[in-house]
Each structure stands twice: as structure tokens, then as C-alpha cells.
Amino acid sequence: MLNHMVEQQVSPLDRVFGALSDPTRRAMLRRLAGGTRTVGELAEPFDMSFAAAAKHVKVLEEAGLLRRTIEGRTHRCRIEAGPLGQADRWLAYYERFWSLRLDNLERALVRHSRKRSRK
Amino acid sequence: MLNHMVEQQVSPLDRVFGALSDPTRRAMLRRLAGGTRTVGELAEPFDMSFAAAAKHVKVLEEAGLLRRTIEGRTHRCRIEAGPLGQADRWLAYYERFWSLRLDNLERALVRHSRKRSRK
Q: Which helix or strand (DSSP H or E) is residue B68 part of?
């Protein structure tokens, strides 16, 4: 019951950011950006069991980042980037902060090079 | 020792996406976007103990998203959005996928409205 309630409180954005917090899952998404892959193909480059890799695939699927098609024993996976767009829109709100940092850095560099040219 | 090794394998991007996977922490960042806040002020809107809120603040701090200044007993926090920029650059690689989805949607809408105007 408690588990069920906790489950319901998890928002799509929680799942997407959670899925992206692991380097194996980010690497799997990068491979899927190149085209459809079977779960076996996705697991291949990683030094882990098939079962462990399949769990990562499942997390990506539950976050809506991966669509699976089952043909007999073969599970084909493709990327579903829509939720990444949602994550990107969330981040866009903060863009002014990191742009500001870059502006400050640029100004500091300009000041520095002016000082040097005066010497 | 094992903990230490596991600790070292966690990349900055893992921590940033992990920090963003929780709605309380995302809401805290949103408040910090409005200016400096004490830990007490950050905790205030949430139905949780001060200790629980302080843990969320700590996760944001460890992800490099929050800078804390201690003045006596007051901990002042401000946003450090740089790592969000790093997350945004990671997501930018996938932009073509969700743009593509929007293009397809747009084409479908145009087709739909053409059909309607022919009737």
C-alpha cells in the first residue's frame, strides 16, 4: 500500500532525470540515437550481466525514453526523445544563470587581454 | 573502501541529474532562482522536517547546484546554475529527435486542415 502510494507520487520528470542519472543508461540512449537496437546489442559494450543491462533498459522504458517492440524472442528498442524535450524545457528556465556566468567570464577575459596589451 | 570506490565512479552529470530527479529539490532550485535563501526559508513551503529539507539542500550542494555561505548560525544558499548548463548541453544532442516529432506533428496538422478545407 505504502509502496503503491509512493509510486503514484513519482512524476514523469522525476523518472526522466532519474533515468539520466546513470552513465550506462546515458550511453544506451546515445547508442539508440544511432538507430534501433536489440536489448542484447544495448548490453554488449558494458561489463555487466545481461540481467543488469536489461534492468537499465527497463528504467529507460519506464521513463518513456525507450519504446520496445517484441518479435518472438527479440526485443527491439528505439529511442523516444519526447521526455528529453520536457527535461530540456525545465532546464531552459535557468539558462539566464549560466549565460550570465559566461558573460562575466567573457568580460573578465576582455579586461585581462586589455591589461596585457597595455604592458 | 568499496564505498570510496563507488563514490569515485559517480560523475558530475550523475549527481546533477540525480539531484533533479526529486520534485522538492527542483522546487528549491526554482526558489533560489529568485535570490539567496536561508536553509530555513528553503524548507518552509514543504510538509517535511527541517532535517529532511536540510538533506535535500545537501544533495543540491553536492551536485554543485547550490553554494552555501555560513554566517554564525545562518546558512545562506544561492543557486550555482553552471552544472545545469552541462546537463542542458548533454540534452542538446537529442534535440533533433524531439524537433522531428514536432515537425511530424505539424505536417499531420497541415494535412488535417487541408482535408477539412476540401470538404
A: strand B66-71
CB pairs under 8 A between A and B: 85
A17 → closest Cβ in B17, B79, B98? B17
Contact call for residues A80 and A64 (beta carbons, < 8 A): yes
- State whether residue A67 is helix, strand or coil: strand
CB contact under 8 A, A14 and B30: no
What whole-number distance in Å separates Cα of residue B53 and Cα of residue B58? 9
Contact A21 B18 (CB under 8 A): yes
Tens of pLDDT, residue by residue over B48-69, are 999 999 999 999 999 999 999 9
As for the ipTM of the complex, it is 0.80
pLDDT digits (tens, 9 = 90+) for B95-119: 888 776 666 666 777 777 777 776 5
